[in-house]
Amino acid sequence: MKSILTLKQVSKLYDNGFQALKNINWEVKEGEIHALLGPNGAGKTTLINLICGIVSPSAGEVNVGGFDIIKDFKKTRSFIGLVPQELSVHAFETVWASVSFTRGLYGKPANPKYIEEVLKSLSLWDKKDQKIMTLSGGMKRRVLIAKALSHEPSILFLDEPSAGVDVELRKDMWKIVESLRKNGVTIILTTHYIEEAESIADRISVIRKGEIFLTENKDRLMKQLGTKQLRIELKKTLKLIPKSLSKYELELVDQNSAIVFTYDRSDDSSLITKLLDDLKKLKIQFSDLSTKQSSLEEIFVQLLQEAV
């Protein structure tokens, strides 16, 4: 896949001396779902606002669809849809009027059929004539997505789209995201719900203190950095781990009634077989085995700790 978004040595230094972004080099591929993760204050929103033309870079170059965001502002802005964190909507407008007006702001000719499709896909069609002020927070969030899609963008930025949204609505939103991707829209999202990034993202970037220090395929990241745990339920408790098993770095848990073996996913599976054989030789009996692999959230925390 070719890149639809490219940043080269991009920095943002504010007048008060605060450097929000530092020498960022970043690429997003066309048609992917790319999750941008980082703690509060890491620079996620500043980076999105800069790409969208809301904030100007202090240095560096940003290209969207092969066009420079400064020299070709109008062109690049037409490629981008943004769903901001804040629920900033015109309270006294109807859903239909608000979404249609936003399309016009981008110089797009009226297209009622397309607006109808967008509203139906977001379960807003039956509310098209309602004033936005009468909608719930979750429905207002859907209106923001509809407004961002009104001009048929190639890239959709979702800045914390699940904030303040109930679980059911959150699941619906991710179905919409997947549907957009199938239609060729590139999705870039920031989220505090790391399980969402784990379930839908193709690639993940991690930003900390204004610097992107990692961009990786999600599955490869979890394979390289993730660990697995084998839990062995014992028939009888152990006072301590026999010295002959020290090479496995085992841990006694649950009042010595179970053993936990932590290993890298890349480790040879025969290592587990050897451990079980050694337990058998020592006449340590067990009643059950179970495995658990680390989640993306655990990997994320590990990466941030390593970056300190």
Q: Within the CATH hierarchy, at the fold level, what is the topology of the largest domain?
A: Rossmann fold
CATH superfamily of the largest domain: P-loop containing nucleotide triphosphate hydrolases
The main sheet orders its strands as 6-7-8-3-9-10
Q: How far apart, in Å, are the first and last alpha carbons?
A: 33 Å
- Please state the overall shape, judged from the principal axes of the Cα atoms: elongated
Average pLDDT for all residues: 86
Instruction: Give the CATH level 1 class of the largest domain.
Output: Alpha Beta
Question: Percent of residues in helical segments?
Answer: 25-40%
Number of strands: 14
- Stretches where pLDDT is under 50 for at least 5 consecutive residues are none
Strand content: 25-35%
Radius of gyration: 25 Å
Q: Return the structural class.
A: alpha/beta
CATH architecture of the largest domain: 3-Layer(aba) Sandwich
Largest sheet: 6 strands, mixed
- SSE run: EEEHEEHEHHHEHEHEEHEEEHEH
Q: How many discrete domains?
A: 2
Q: Helix count?
A: 10
Task: Describe this structure as you would to a colleague.
InterPro entries: AAA+_ATPase, ABC_transporter-like_ATP-bd, ABC_transporter-like_CS, ABC_transporter_ATP-binding, P-loop_NTPase. This is ABC transporter, ATP-binding protein. GO terms for molecular function: ATP binding; ATP hydrolysis activity. Keywords: ATP-binding, Nucleotide-binding, Transport. It comes from Leptospira vanthielii serovar Holland str. Waz Holland = ATCC 700522. The structure is a single chain. With 308 residues, the chain is of the alpha/beta class. The protein has two domains: 220 residues, 3-Layer(aba) Sandwich (Rossmann fold), CATH 3.40.50; 82 residues, Alpha-Beta Plaits. It is 34% helix and 29% strand. It is built from ten helices and 14 strands. The strands form three sheets. A six-stranded mixed β-sheet has the order 6-7-8-3-9-10, with helices on both faces. A four-stranded antiparallel β-sheet has the order 2-1-4-5, with helices on one face. The two termini are 33 Å apart. The mean pLDDT is 86.
